[in-house]
Amino acid sequence: MTVAIVDYGSGNLRSAAKAFQHEAAGRKVLVTGRAEDLARADHIVLPGVGSFGDCARGLRALAGMMEALQENVVRRAKPFLGICVGMQLMATRGVEHGIHEGLGWIHGEVVPLEPDTGAGDHRLKVPHMGWNELTIGDPAHPIFAGLAPGAHAYFVHGYRFAAADAASVLAEVSHGGPVTAAIGRDNMVGTQFHPEKSQAVGLSLIANFLAWRP
Fold first, then answer.
1. Which end of the chain has fewer CB atoms within 10 angstroms, the N or the C?
2. CA nearest neighbour of 16 among 8, 5, 24
3. Segments forming the whole domain that contains residue 205
4. Residue closest to 179 by CA, chosen among 87, 103, 92, 102
5. pLDDT tens, position by position, 137-163
6. Which residues does the annotation mark as catalytic?
7. Measured between alpha carbons, how far is 79 from 73 in angstroms, rounded to an integer?
């Protein structure tokens, strides 16, 4: 079995690859920018660091990659995980430094993170950076199986996924109000946090994703 991590110049691939290799249990972890490699993969991962527009352009610059993602994720329903901006790219569009079209897999927009400090907490910063407690939906999605209440994950982001349908939100985090921490539908999931940087919690989530058969 093969896990394909899409390399489109977004960075952060080394730590993501190492985390997936740690939990691969005999699977091949392939970091690739070749569209044809997705046809041979059983699971597909789209990481992302940087701005929505830059990542969207980088992804579209890979010959055949957008078509390969549609074929393998949407039509063939292979398990898919988007991480950070990789999750945000699942949206209809992003508005970071202009309006940019996303993959359109989950309806919603990626908009600026604007913490509400009206409650008196003026220490909240943007970007949101650091460890925060996850509020996982009920019932929990299979990728959160076995995580203890109060599990913390590592976030670095200045924009948030505003989902059009609350049913798409699998988990939230509090940062001056509820912020989407994970989204999903069918065979697709995405995390705003970085599982590859979230120590035991992140490795458990990766193991759950690799075992997931939607």
1. N
2. 5
3. 2-211
4. 87
5. 988 899 999 998 889 999 999 999 999
6. 84, 194, 196
7. 7
